[in-house]
Specification:
Length: 287
């Protein structure tokens, strides 16, 4: 049947079907066809060699290229959280998986899959807390009053460990003070407002007043300050942490894969776990 023989309704139906197929995966992120790759409208061949990995992350997540200062600050935050050693569950899992005969991608996936609310989610949670304080400020509350109100709400909801503050290993997390110093530098350049750095410091002060000792900000709280200053939604703080920590995960998985060890468990073979179950007992006779 020629195109001239098709009825208007047939042609309209085919057009609608084609439109539905094209919209099955609708995205503003990438345009791709033979010989063409564009990210948010920018041809890849023009981006290569001109923008950094951090700038590309910003472009894909935010839709536009960042300013020079925004890209620098994002890169600093991503760099700061790449690794924290095999005592971190995700890194330990990557190393164990690498001795089980799986590929690097499997070891990395195993590690990333444990970055949840307890290990890996504190940045998102801290950022949510900061934004709640900021919302109270927007409603007219002073900063200290806003922090106190959110701390009270956190406690009333059963919260015990304020995300982003305190560290089970470091009395003072060496990464956090430096990151706040960097935020101050960029705030002076007016690249960011400095508002969330001030909120974070106020939280430290109010916690100290409540508990009689300082509970310093940790890496999660400090990177949450940066991501909030840069205007990222809170859920992306966890995704950005996963990107950052994947660098350390890859390095550890690769290193362990070169060791030649097989089936490496969480504790040395000469040590066994503690058994807390019943003492040896006979199996009951069958009826």
């Amino acid at each position: 049947m020629s195109e001239s023989d098709m009825s208007e309704s047939d042609m309209s139906g085919k057009q609608n079907e084609a439109a539905r197929e094209a919209a099955w995966w609708a995205t503003e992120i990438i345009e791709m066809e033979p010989g063409v790759i564009r990210y948010r409208g920018y041809p890849i061949e023009e981006l290569i060699g001109r923008i950094s990995f951090a700038q590309m992350i910003w472009l894909l997540l935010r839709g536009e290229l960042p300013t020079k200062e925004q890209a620098e600050l994002l890169d600093i935050a991503l760099m700061s959280a790449v690794d924290h050693g095999p005592q971190a569950p995700s890194i330990a899992i990557a190393r164990m998986a690498a001795t089980c005969g799986v590929g690097l991608n499997n070891a990395m996936a195993s590690a990333v899959n444990v970055l949840g609310d307890v290990h890996g989610g504190a940045g998102e949670q801290a950022m949510t807390f900061y934004r709640a304080v900021a919302a109270r400020g927007d409603a007219g509350a002073g900063r200290e009053d806003a922090v106190e109100a959110e701390l009270a709400a956190f406690k009333a909801a059963g919260g015990k460990y304020l995300p982003g503050f305190g560290h089970r290993f470091h009395p003072i997390d060496p990464r956090a003070p430096r990151l706040l110093e960097v935020v101050d530098v960029y705030a002076k350049k007016e690249a960011v407002s400095g508002r969330f750095a001030a909120i974070g410091r106020c939280i430290e002060d109010r916690l100290a007043a409540r508990k009689g000792k300082r509970i310093p900000m940790n890496i999660d709280g400090a990177t949450a300050v940066i991501y909030a200053e840069l205007g990222f939604p809170a859920p992306l703080a966890r995704g950005l942490f996963c990107l950052s920590r994947s660098v350390g995960i890859l390095a550890h998985a690769w290193e362990e894969s070169q060791s030649g060890l097989r089936n490496k468990g969480p504790i040395p073979r000469e040590r066994l776990w503690r058994y807390d179950g019943p003492a040896r007992r006979p199996v009951p006779e069958a009826d």
